[in-house]
Design brief:
Keywords: Signal. Residues 1-17 form the signal peptide. This protein has 55 residues and is mostly helical. Helices cover 47% and strands 0% of the residues. It is built from 2 helices and no strands. It has helices spanning 2-17, 43-52. The longest helix is centred in the N-terminal third of the chain and has 16 residues, at 2-17. The termini are far apart.
């Protein structure tokens, strides 16, 4: 019974959030990275953050 309940919760979450809609994942819809102020982030700045975080 618990598995049926869990399956219902997963089903609802996928239905509510939507599945993988390939049409919505185009490069035309890509907004790019922005910082907290809304300014675009350059690749150099992103690399600095990744390096300082240990990635």
């Amino acid at each position: 019974m618990a598995l049926l309940w869990a399956a219902g919760i997963i089903w609802f979450a996928v239905d509510f959030a939507g599945g993988n809609d390939a049409a919505a994942n185009t490069s035309a819809n890509e907004s790019g990275l922005t910082d907290a102020t809304g300014q675009p982030v350059t690749a150099e700045e992103a690399a600095k953050v990744a390096n300082s975080a240990g990635f």
